[in-house]
Amino acid sequence: MEQSKNTPSFGIKQLAEDERPREKMYAHGASSLHIAELLAILIGSGNKQASALQLGYEVFNRANQNLSELSRMTLAELTTVHGIGTAKAIILNAALELGRRKREEEAKKITKILCSRDAYNYFEPFMEDYRHEEFWILLLNRNNMVLGKKRVSVGGVAGTVVDPKVIFKLALDQLASSIILCHNHPSGNLQPSQQDINITKKLREGARFLDIIISDHIIIGNKAYFSFADKGLISN
After folding, report:
1. Confidence band of 131 (pLDDT split at 50, 70, 90)
2. What is the pTM (predicted TM-score) of this model?
3. For the chain, counts of helices (H) and of strands (E)
4. Pairing assessment for the beta strands 134-140 and 146-154 based on DSSP bridges
5. Residue 167: Cβ-neighbour burial (10 angstroms; 0-12, 13-18, 19+)
6. Over the stretch 205-222, which tens digit does the pLDDT of each residue have?
7. Most exposed among 43, 102, 200, 206, judged by the fewest C-beta atoms under 10 Å?
8. Is residue 153 a contact partner of residue 180, using CB atoms and an 8 Å limit?
9. Which letter, b or e, does each residue of 99-123 get, where b requires 16 or more Cβ atoms within 10 Å of its Cβ?
10. CA nearest 85: which of 50, 118, 43?
11. Strands laid side by side in the 213-221 sheet
12. Could you give phi then psi for residue 198, rounded to 5 degrees?
C-alpha cells in the first residue's frame, strides 16, 4: 500500500502496549485518542501491507484530515483505500451516521430560536454533510417557538432554485409569524452569492404583504455559518 506522508510507518505491534488504540482508550478514555486511532478501532484489523492504525491514518488523510469531509465519504470512496473492504467501509459509515444522528437528536431539543447561533445549531446536524445545495425554512410563532422545519428545494453543487410561492404556502399552512431561511454551501465558502442576496430581498418584500417576518437567512458550510441578520443585511 502506498502511504500518505502523514501515515505512520510503524504498526500497532511496534507501539508500547499502553499506546495501542484499544489499550489507550481503556486506560484514558475515548477523548484521549486521535481521530485516526478511533478509526483504527473501528477498522479492527489490518493486512500484510498495513496495520489497522496505518489504515486509520490513511482514511483520515484521504479526508484531508477533516472530520466533515470524512463524514461525507461514501462507501465507494472508503473502499478506494487499499485494505478497506466493503465490510470495514460499512462499519465506518455506520459509526459516522450514529454521530450525525446524535447531533440531530440534540438539535431537536432546541424549541426556541433567540439568535443566529440557535438557528445554526438547529440546522447544522443534517445539512453540514450534504454535497449538494438544499434550501430549508424554519417556521416560528410570535414567541420564536419552533413550529417545524421544511425542505423547500434540492439542487446541485452550485445552487438550487427557490420558489417563493412554496415558502409562503408552507408558512401559511403552519400559521407561522416568522421564517428563518437556511441553505448550505458545499464548497465551504460562506459568502452569499448575488442570487442569495436577491432571493432574500424578494422573500422579504413578499412576506410583508402576508404579515410574515423573514428573521434571518443562514448559510452553512465547513462547520461555520453566515447570518444575514448578524451582518445587517436584513431589516424588517
Report:
1. confident
2. 0.73
3. 9, 5
4. antiparallel
5. buried
6. 999 999 999 999 999 988
7. 102
8. no
9. eeeeeeeebeeeeebeebebbbbbb
10. 43
11. 146-154, 134-140, 178-184, 213-221, 224-227
12. -65, -45
74 close to 57: Cβ distance less than 8 angstroms: no
Q: How far is Cα 98 from Cα 44, in angstroms, rounded to an integer?
A: 18
- Long-range (24+ apart) CB contacts under 8 A made by 94-97 are 95/42, 96/70, 96/71
Fold of 110-227: Cytidine Deaminase; domain 2 (3.40.140)
Neighbouring CB atoms inside 10 A of 186's CB total 20
C-alpha separations of 5 from 43, 54, 55, 61 in Å? 20, 11, 13, 9
Question: CA 37 to CA 39: how far, in whole Å?
Answer: 5
User: What is the C-alpha to C-alpha distance for residues 9 and 138, in angstroms, rounded to an integer?
Assistant: 49
Size of the chain in residues: 236
**DSSP structure class, residue 32:** G
β 178-184/146-154 pair status: unpaired
Which cell numbers hold the place of 64?
Answer: 484531508
How many angstroms separate the first and last alpha carbons of the chain?
59
Domain boundaries, the chain: 12-104, 110-227
pLDDT digits (tens, 9 = 90+) for 31-89: 999 999 999 999 998 888 888 999 999 999 999 898 888 988 999 999 999 999 999 99
